[in-house]
Predict the 3D structure of the following.
Amino acid sequence: MTLIVACLAASCAPRPAPTPMPAAATATLRVPTQSATPSPACKPAPTAPALPETATLASDPAPLTNYFNRGGELPALINHMQAANVLPLFPGSLEAVSADVDGDGADDIALSLQDPTITTAPRPPGALYVWFCRSGEYTVDYDLQPGPGQAAPVLLASSDLTGDGAGEIVFGRPTCGAHTCFLALGVLSWDGQALTDVFSGSSEDLPSPTIVVAPGPDGAGTIAVTAGGVMSVGAGPPRPRTRTWTWIPTARTFVPGRDVPAPPVFRVHVVQDADAAFEAGDLDAASALYQRALEDAALQEWDAPPATPASLKAYVHYRLVLLALARAGREAAQQEFDSMVGATTGVPEAEPYLALAELVLQEPEPVNLAAACNLVRSYAADHTAEVLDPLYYGYDNRVYTPADLCPFE
């Protein structure tokens, strides 16, 4: 685990802006208005106080406030709370944050605490607290309590992501099922009077997330969340995708960009990319991707009948017939169909896709692509088990309908 810890025992002296750490999620916090002059550093008397009892810290942080103000050391406290299962854990999370959050030159403290007495839930509930160093002592000025059924938040990063010299706190609320966890992310940022959540959009649809936080030029920091996929056989072959949030100063918020899928590893994902290019009108890209799906021996198969490598390749041949029809007319499509017949002879899984190819070839010149697509969709609707079921690769992948099998209207 990474731990951001500075001088919390005998003093809390001013320090430079915090350094980058990994990322993540939600809330608004009111704190006293910052004075025009820097707040004096917190300098508790070094009395070596006893470590606090842990059972109720998630709901009552007062013992921690007393501990800090009597000179208690954060590293010793962390070890104490880890042993008592008070600190919520998540891959890449932090045990604590010690950083100048409000830009007054003195380090503040952030801790997320879970209830160690609750063992029935997948993850115990808990709360996130921030102690501000003001007038020479620590006080709790942030208190994010869990909603019904919510788990304790996790601290994921502390870094100046907005270019204002104060550190943002990135955190997340985990939700975990039998196989997969999700994170609802948020970013706490000082606006001159309060810490507010400046994270827009949602990250809760990104399963098994990995988070990378990075400051950017002119203070435009980024938070990149990569979804590793749903860790269940029923979800089908996983394909990571990354969504990046970027700080927009004029809007004072982190704004999400579009999802960017990782390069395909499984053959079916190359086919789905080809279909997407076809639907977008990029026929050259679609053609190259379909050919790769047929020829690239390095691509991995996902064999989950009725979705088989043989049925997938037969579908690709059908798409190449349709593509040839759209690009060059019936004669070119007939040549592609002849290649399909040669490549799929003796392959039972190819029969429904041969039928689709024969349907589009029924169109006389000049070819009416919309009419050909109507025939394909009608056939697919009447033969769902033969045509669509072999294209089902799990609920975390594209699910095809009759309309998806031919894109022309």
About this structure: The chain has nine helices and 14 strands.
